[in-house]
């Protein structure tokens, strides 16, 4: 069973389920944090879509609208704004401290020290920014792309995936440089979010019969975005690229394995894990 409609209310779910049943298409209605989802057998997906389309054509005043996989619930963007404001608060705390540069030295993604066992730097570096321009740009990226990922995957699952992409991007970047390189900023995780979005849309394109051409167009657009936004003179191009690549892998895995958005308990668990990783890294850096 795969999702046909998502983020719809109970009345819509009941009507569409009845339409499908009348067409002889078995279906299942499940509840989630953001409404209801209708699942149908994968082999009957096209037939199910045709049935819903015919119903809406025949009932133009019904007021019912199909919610597609590109819909982004407000909750995701609200969490993006909250995380963006948290980045700004951390930046203010660092820049107004007695020795801001000490934070970069102790918590920045220093390639040599990461490879020497100080893994926590891959995490803590994501929350540090060089100046106001740096943090404001990343706040916008977090709110936009992070919010979009959370709109698809849920707040807990979405931020855990983005955090993991940021961590792995910094780690791979350290492996590439080996020594003499220091990286800071949330942009590695942001480009991870871009990769996740592109991969999920690419997988959906194949699943829904839009073909491999659409998939390559989506991934190509993501690569172009990395090239356009992630290669300025002050940018850490390697971290951006590796963040994007890990995001593509993460989003591809999510698109293939996840049939619908995880429920509330799973979202809470994943969110707790993400917060635990952040806290553990900062504590490890302090001690």
Question: How are the SSEs placed, and which strands pair?
Answer:
Elements: E1 2-8, H1 10-22, E2 28-32, E3 35-40, H2 45-58, H3 74-95, H4 100-107, E4 109-110, H5 111-115, H6 121-124, H7 132-153, H8 155-177, E5 182-183, H9 187-207, H10 211-229, H11 237-257, H12 264-286
Antiparallel strand pairs: 1-3, 2-3, 4-5
Fold and architecture overview:
The protein has 2 domains: 2-58, Alpha-Beta Plaits (2-Layer Sandwich); 74-286, Up-down Bundle (Rhomboid-like fold). Strand 2 (28-32) and strand 3 form a beta hairpin. The model is unreliable at 61-73 (pLDDT under 50). It is mainly alpha-helical and 287 residues long. The relative contact order is 0.13. The strands form 2 sheets. The chain has a 3-stranded antiparallel beta sheet, with helices on one face. The chain has 12 helices and 5 strands. The longest helix has 23 residues, at 155-177. The protein has helices at residues 10-22, 45-58, 74-95, 100-107, 111-115, 121-124, 132-153, 155-177, 187-207, 211-229, 237-257, 264-286, and strands spanning 2-8, 28-32, 35-40, 109-110, 182-183. Helix 7 (132-153) packs parallel to helix 9 (187-207).
């Amino acid at each position: 069973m795969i999702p046909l409609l998502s983020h719809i209310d109970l009345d819509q779910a009941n009507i569409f389920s009845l339409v499908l049943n009348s067409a002889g298409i078995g279906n299942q209605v499940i509840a989630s944090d953001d409404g209801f989802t209708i699942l149908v057998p994968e082999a009957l997906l096209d037939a199910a879509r045709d049935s819903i389309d015919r119903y809406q054509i025949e009932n133009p005043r019904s007021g019912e609208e199909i919610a597609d996989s590109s819909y982004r619930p407000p909750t995701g963007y609200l969490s993006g704004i909250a995380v963006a404001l948290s980045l700004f608060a951390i930046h203010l705390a660092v820049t107004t401290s007695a020795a801001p540069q000490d934070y970069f030295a102790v918590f920045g993604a220093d390639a040599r020290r990461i490879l020497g066992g100080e893994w926590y730097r891959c995490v803590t570096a994501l929350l540090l920014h060089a100046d106001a321009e740096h943090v404001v740009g990343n706040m916008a990226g977090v709110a936009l792309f992070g919010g979009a990922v959370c709109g698809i995957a849920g707040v807990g699952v979405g931020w855990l995936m983005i955090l993991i992409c940021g961590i792995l991007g910094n780690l791979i970047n350290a492996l590439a440089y080996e020594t003499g390189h220091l990286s800071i900023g949330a942009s590695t995780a942001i480009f991870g979010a871009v990769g996740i979005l592109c991969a999920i849309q690419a997988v959906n394109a194949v699943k829904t019969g839009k073909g491999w051409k659409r998939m390559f167009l989506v991934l190509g657009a993501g690569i172009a975005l990395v090239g356009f936004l992630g290669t300025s003179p002050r940018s850490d191009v390697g971290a951006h690229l590796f963040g994007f690549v890990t995001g593509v892998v993460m989003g591809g895995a999510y698109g293939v394995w996840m049939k619908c958005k995880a429920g509330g308990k799973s979202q809470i668990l994943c969110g707790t894990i993400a917060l635990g990783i952040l806290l553990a890294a900062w504590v490890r850096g302090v001690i």
